[in-house]
Amino acid sequence: MAVAASRVQLRPTTPARAAIPIRHVDAAAAKAAPTGMDELDRVLGGGLVPGAVVLLAGEPGVGKSTLLLEAGALAASVGRVLYVTGEESAAQVRLRADRIGAVSDNLYLAAETDFAAVLGHVQDVEPSLLIVDSVQTITAAGVDGVPGGVTQVREVTAALTALAKQRTMTTVLVGHVTKDGSVAGPRTLEHLVDVVLQFEGDVRSQLRLVRALKNRFGPTDEIGCFELNEFGLIGLPDPSGLFLSQRHDPVPGTCVTVTLEGRRPLVAEVQTLVCEVAGQQLPPKRMVAGLDFARIGMMIAVLQRRAHVEVGKHEVYAATVGGMRLTEPAVDLAVGVAIASAHSGISVPADLVAIGEVGLAGEIRRVTGIQRRIAEAQRLGFRRAVIPAGSGFLLGSSGGRGDDVRSQLEVIEVENMRKAIAATLGK
């Protein structure tokens, strides 16, 4: 079969800049500048890189505008910042800025939805940081599609990205999310930018999490924790205590675990309630909040079949404390122990944590980061840890600290779910 000739012209042109050896490239121009918010800098990998384009996505009302207004006011101490709002009036933004103390002479505010007008403001202010809240509200003349539509959002984002690179101007775009939590618009929107941040949190809770879904300049396994109150966002360098209930006496149906959010270990509590089915109601109810519904169903089946805990015909309710969402398999063991505790009416010791993944055969599988998890539990005063069999040698693989852990915290290794229940609730 004959191969069609390429239509690309193979005529070279003189490049605007000659290629140079990589060791002669000045990397200082791409050095991150701290925002002044330690938790945000943790996620960004040190701060904002000049010329970078950051997309901040989150549900309405979660606090995206508050976060960026605070960050913009802090950045205004070292350079001009232009905040473009397309969803609120300038007076509304000023009221929020007064409330959270984000007023600065170098923080410029413009209420615009026309892309050409935004370019005019950039030319007049010459900011080092541009914040657009939100990109879905900006429309460009001559581009097909309705405001906020796929075509408009893609073209506006591409033009703002080109402008940021041309002027070496850090740009932060606010993006809406769809019902399933993904960034609204095409997937190409995420490919156009350098960094994609997800701002998460229950609007009924004060806890907010920032995580990096994409980062060309730093890690994608870090999270930042904030507390949202009437005076703005407060960084939480030690948030573990938020995910534990404030009670003194153990209650059946609860178990503490240690989850890894990125590289940060967080101690969290799982609460369950097991009730007999009222009347002839079938199938029994399964209600879940903050946990993976599918894994809860799997744990109920494993307990019923492998550990002889007869909960299959009971109603099961499971939730987390403090609005924390636990999705990693390492919390399986804590969920299973909590359900067994609720069914038996026997409390799990208050100084015990359970960490491990549970398989369909009832076996307890090893998980990553066991050293960091155990160290965090020990730091918060826990004295016993139930972990998968074979994980003990990992505690001694970090410079001899394993002996220190074992001397201050009793490590109980279990092979299957039956032994885990016996170790936590007694035989």
What does this protein structure show overall?
The protein has 427 residues and is an alpha/beta fold. It has two domains: 30-237, Rossmann fold (3-Layer(aba) Sandwich); 242-425, Ribosomal Protein S5, domain 2. 27% of the residues lie in helices and 24% in strands. A nine-stranded mixed β-sheet has the order 3-2-4-5-1-6-7-8-9, sandwiched between helices. A four-stranded mixed β-sheet has the order 10-11-13-12. It has a three-stranded parallel β-sheet with strand order 14-17-18. Helix 8 (332-344) crosses helix 11. The longest helix has 18 residues, at 150-167.
Short description:
With about 425 residues, the protein is α/β, with parallel strands linked by helices. It has helices at about 40-45, 65-75, 90-100, 115-125, 150-165, 190, 295-305, 330-345, 370-380, 400-410, 415-425, and strands spanning about 55-60, 80-85, 105-110, 130-135, 170-175, 195-200, 205-215, 225-230, 230-235, 255-260, 265-275, 285-290, 315-320, 350-355, 355-360, 365, 385-390, 410-415.
CATH level 3 topology of the largest domain: Rossmann fold
How many helices?
Answer: 11
Q: Kindly state the mean pLDDT as a whole number? A: 89
* N- to C-terminal distance: 74 Å
- Count of individual domains: 2
Largest sheet: 9 strands, mixed
Gross morphology: elongated
The neighbouring-strand order within the major sheet is 3-2-4-5-1-6-7-8-9
- The fraction of residues in strands falls at 15-25%
Instruction: Return the string of H and E elements.
Output: HEHEHEHEHEHEEEEEEEHEHEEEHEHEH
Going by CATH, the homologous superfamily of the largest domain would be P-loop containing nucleotide triphosphate hydrolases
Low-confidence stretches: none
Specify the CATH architecture of the largest domain. Answer: 3-Layer(aba) Sandwich
Query: How many beta strands in the DSSP annotation?
Result: 18
Rg calc? 26 Å
Indicate the multimeric state.
single chain
Look at the helices and sheets and give the structural class: alpha/beta
CATH class of the largest domain reads Alpha Beta
Give the helix proportion (percent range).
25-40%
